[in-house]
């Protein structure tokens, strides 16, 4: 569902704005969704958006996977929105994910709070939100749900799966889980497992939420109830520190004060304090605290290795890879991407790797568009050419 | 500087293209902007990949549709399993690695054959400059000053042959180049560049 609206800009300049709407897919009645933990749900909704057109051969579908705080709204504008989707600079006509050529899909992860089923959703058995009774979600579960959506859209093979951070984990999981159904895999600023340090940061965030008295063991949804705002805001503040680099923080804030001079008290004095508070508070308005617990847990559980070896996990994987890391990313350092690249090479899998020099830290994947676009555009082009060649061969040899 | 043939092709690229069997697999260590790899993919139908340290060169490679890995040669070789490639190529890059002996041993592990192209330090003009001027030579294949050269090692054709002989490395093919043609007569004196194909 997509239309082009014209919006009036100052100076009589008319700009075309792509209006998109979120769609919802419910798994068919009678079908169960089985989580990795063994728990089942009969009612599962996946919120998603699509951009561009699926070609007749159904060979141009690209799935984009969002990170912790993202959603299905990757590009374009919702009606009355001032800001476009979270990766708008990368998705659209003539952009890296060129919607004139490719059919782009992005869905909200399950366990999230942006339209797909998660702890905030209504439990049909109790008519109350699930809260902590929602099954624990893993990266594999997120991918299983995406697979159902992709099948529903009539797509057997994806041209590409791409994502940054937690989205990169989903992309890797796709390639391993469905080795014949992903032509190109593009994990960005990501990892094949969470290390002790990454788990540690997540745990501090979770503890901040759970220590908030308003959290009430996750059962805070109610008309009169409070909301664990302080806890979630602190969790987000910690997260934000890990998404930036020392250099980018110093450049942005330095030791600049909000007031004229030191007040010798505990008010918000430094610019950086104000920024983190603002970030924390604005996050609270748009994100569910329980989802924060679920999604960080999903990342902590993530370990792609088989028999404690990453190389074993990639055996038989048919995708080609573009792995991207950023030089100042200390949350998901380039070394982790290099380990992925090495394991792929050891399996003789076609891989391109680039460490983009950037001062933005982990956030770079949401900011360094030019470099990422250069890599992705041509990598996709080559991948698409390969599928076209394969199609031709199959037609010639009479295979279906 | 190796000049281009009449067809606008770099002479060293043509020589390496003639060495490589069609439809083989190739790893180009220090592939730069991917000129050689692109030539080999387009003309010899090779399955090629490269390793390159320069970020901008990576973008050029990807734009050409090439697979390339961002990293240095010294540590990049250990990422691959034994005998994965038909050819491992070091074109004008061997003299820039930290430990050429280890790099060559690693290349012979991951590749069935190794192709190495390097500037000959004992070309006649280099010898003249050393002997008569008492200065470190600057030739068209060694164009940089001592303070800005990327080369860490300086070797002659004779040195390389001796290196291979001492390690039992087989020299399968060798081609010697001046600026624009192939040199057959006394190459260690008259060739600016050498290209060897070796195997274990």
Rg of chain A computed from alpha carbons, rounded to a whole number of angstroms: 22 Å
Number of domains of chain B: 1
So what's the overall shape of chain A?
globular
Contiguous low-pLDDT stretches of chain A (5 residues minimum) are 1-14
Instruction: Note the beta-strand portion of chain A.
Output: 15-25%
Structural class of chain B: alpha/beta
Summarize model confidence as the mean pLDDT of chain A.
Answer: 93
- Rounded mean pLDDT of chain B is 95
Biggest sheet, spatial arrangement of strands of chain A: 3-6-10-7-13-14-15-16
Tell me the total number of β-strands of chain A. Answer: 16
CATH topology of one domain in chain A: Rossmann fold
The number of helical runs of chain A is 10
CATH class of one domain in chain A: Alpha Beta
Please provide a written account of the structure:
- The complex is a heterodimer of chains A (400) and B (200).
- The longest helix of chain A has 29 residues, at 369-397.
- By secondary structure, chain A is an alpha/beta fold.
- Residues 1-14 of chain A have low confidence and may be disordered.
- Chain A has 10 helices and 16 strands.
- In chain A, strands 3-6-10-7-13-14-15-16 form an 8-stranded mixed sheet, with helices on both faces. Chain A has a two-stranded antiparallel sheet with strand order 1-2.
- Chain B has one domain (11-199): Rossmann fold (3-Layer(aba) Sandwich), CATH 3.40.50.150.
- Chain B has helices at 11-19, 35-44, 55-63, 73-76, 100-110, 124-133, 157-167, 187-190, and strands spanning 25-29, 47-52, 67-70, 85-91, 111-119, 170-177, 193-199.
- Chains A and B meet through helix 9, strand 16 and helix 10 of A and helix 3 and strand 3 of B.
